[in-house]
Amino acid sequence: MPAEISTLQKTRALPGVRELLTDAVEAVGGTERDGQVRMAEAVARAIRTGEHLAVQAGTGTGKSLAYLVPAIRYAVEQHTTVVVSTATIALQNQLVDRDLPRLAKALKKPLGREPTFAILKGRRNYLCMHRVHSGAPEEPEDSGLFDAFTVSRIGREVKRLHEWSSETETGDRTELVPGVSEQAWRQVSVSARECLGAARCPVGDDCFAEKARADAGRVDVVVTNHALLAIDALQEQRVLPEHDLVVIDEAHELVDRVTSAATAELTASAVSAATRRCGRIIDADTSDRLLEAGEGLALVLDDLPAGRLDTLPQALGGAVTVVRDAAHACLTALGSERKEDVEEATARKLARSAVEEIHDTAVRLVDAFDADQANRPDVVWISNDTYSSSPRPPSLHVAPLAVGGLLRERVFARSTTVLTSATLALGGRFDTLARQWGLPPEPTPVPVDDGTATDKPAPADDADDGLRWSGLDVGSPFDYGRNGILYVAKHLPPPGRDGLGDATLDEIAALVEAAGGRTLGLFSSMRAAKRAAEELRERLPYEILCQGDDSTSTLVAQFAEEPRTCLLGTLSLWQGVDVPGPSLQLVIVDRLPFPRPDDPVASARQRAIEAKGGNGFLTVAATHAALLLAQGAGRLHRSSNDRGVVAVLDSRLATARYGGFLRASIPPFWPTQDPAVARDALTRLDAAAPGRSSTSTALR
């Protein structure tokens, strides 16, 4: 139960959400916005009625306060815990390090006590003191992968981790600055499957992960991530504390994050490592059987091309079946937990964890091909990057074709859910993402709310009818139509498979020159980004940064500090750049961000929808493009004073039938197809930028 309840709180009614929001905004030195108020009231209504809510809140709305204030009020009033889930570490840190501390102090007096909060991550993110004290078992699968220098570096990092273990109070990896490599961290951490459990672990009383979970069960607000939310939904044993309200921020990434958490991989090296984990715990004949099965899998995978598997090749099916059966034999030999010393128990737990993962993945791979293509739950593919700069042997992957059923049964059916992001209403409607989340395609009509509705409706006989939701777009305080231009280069030829054409490169150079640098280039591939960087460095006098030249965070910081700089890159820049001011006045999109045709999950989802009579392209590919395009265009306006141009150099946005859907998904900039208009606006902005007041510059 969150925090101790004061006598005063038990006897008095709490202030309303509107009053609390006003106190919160004043305390943090902000300005109350109409969209923020509408969102807070809608969240409060959802809490009262139990009806799920999707809220699109544009940049600058102040959506964090809009959902935190009613959520905290509910947690304090009902003495319960509310879960807030984010997709990115940046937002997670913003909530825990900035928003919630300030909000807790602001609401202490009106609520009668200071609200409490905590962050909760997966077990792998916390230091394992048992590993620290006992020493990590050998990681035989890594042998031979590192040269002497790398091994020495990892040794130094592990020594530093041991020293840090006596200093840290949380064991949270993110608190270690500078960080360490993944190989080093694995020496002092365990997964949930590898953990002995607090009751059996000799240092269970000092377990950082268990302490984090215990703390999470005693606070008002628990901040977590979509991956842990997915794990909580996937497992029978709950990971998150008991809750009946969850807020999902950055909800546009929910489906991808849940899909990633539910994806499994099978490799020959993993089978070999699991065999060695068994070591002397089981008889050699049984473990050798698994080792041979892994070797057979490696031989088969080496002969198969990378890509999606619509049918299971006979040789591969046989190899995976042999792995499955051999892993089952090892699990039988390992037996259940026994009364043994800690060292033996640890070795057995690690072996069982590794073999269980191999077995469960093999079972899932074989079962994935049982149904016809339209009704298969999973998609299977082979990846093979032996020719990349960091080669890995071939591997098998299996991922869910859809996660709506999981979310419907394990999230929406259990808790009132608020989903929010700056990008949810694709094509001006919420139904596209609602289907992916597992909600009914049509929202529930919202009745007139007089503030007295408190009773949640009785459960309906039909499971789908029981899921009621509403959608709300509260807009943005930014005047996109006056402060931004959407330039679509209709005159350019449609993009081809050969990368950037000469005409497109000329267009990019002309726009960047007009802008005086100040450009974020969002490209569909690293090859295109590098080609553009090479050309611009030859043609223009500005500093051209390209993703991969340094860490992304370093490049973004340099881009923000030096106004006449350009930053070019791919996917992570579409959503990860927050640079207000004159450093960013031009966003270039080289082509519409459709998923790659050979993307196994997207292509399988598209085919499954078409097999059922739906429009796979619009449902999957166009939705993917709309989300990314909206996020990319949103990089331009990060404050109310920002001005600039979003230039889409893909003529299909103007000519294709789906163009209207995509345009309706991005902020309502003033549109033009005239390159001279775009260049002139950028030239005026560049001229005004050095001493700019940012309130008088006209774009058109």
Automatic annotation (TrEMBL):
Region (Disordered): 435-466
UniProt KW Cell membrane keyword: no
Its EC number(s): 5.6.2.3
Domain Helicase ATP-binding: 22-316, 44-288
Swiss-Prot/TrEMBL cofactor(s): [4Fe-4S] cluster
Molecular-function GO term, any one: hydrolase activity
Keyword list, A-Z: ATP-binding, Helicase, Hydrolase, Nucleotide-binding
Enzyme class, first EC level, given as a word: isomerase
Entry superkingdom: Bacteria
One Pfam assignment: DEAD
Signal peptide: none
Catalytic reactions of this protein: ATP + H2O = ADP + phosphate + H(+)
Protein family: Belongs to the helicase family. DinG subfamily.
Protein name: DNA 5'-3' helicase
Taxonomy of the source species: Bacteria, Bacillati, Actinomycetota, Actinomycetes, Pseudonocardiales
